[in-house]
Amino acid sequence: MKSIAIEREFGSGGRAVGKKVAELAGIPYYDSELLVKTASEFDYSLDALKEYDERRTGSFLYDLATYANINYDTNTQKIQELLYAVGETIQRLALRGPCVFIGRASTEVLRKNGLGKGVYIYSSDNGKKIQRIMETERVSEPEAKRLMDKKDRDRKNFYRTCTEKNWSDRKNYDLEINMANFTVQESARIIMAILK
Model's pTM, two decimal places? Predict the structure, then answer.
């Protein structure tokens, strides 16, 4: 059995699907826990990792420095070190045995090292995503829409920064699941089928 890495649109239910896959397969599940593991294994501040986690890497100046291969400043170097440490943590955990990873460009880490399969979870039904966000985040509909746009933009930027690839490009994944058509349970069972 190989590991599974899931990238997901905010509000699609990707995290719930990942948890269900881990439960059904009896394997570890890593989401924000990756930051704790990385901090302990690489002796980084957990606060520093949280600051850059899936959101702070998408600025214009950072992108310019990264793509021009220029060490813009020590902040850019620190970001690169933190991203490397998270990637290394994902690889080390996958080498120990199958896991489910959520986000943090884990799909690319597993693909490059032949350690697992990548899944992209989205929903073509924005109404369902907004409803899920309102329930899970306990926010109003306008705030849910704002959060959906912001989180997806942050995830897209983070993925591009880590991989130099487009987050929603189908070529990056072994499987895509449209949650407008499936329940969490059904989606988990589809992923379980590719795990075997």
Answer: 0.84
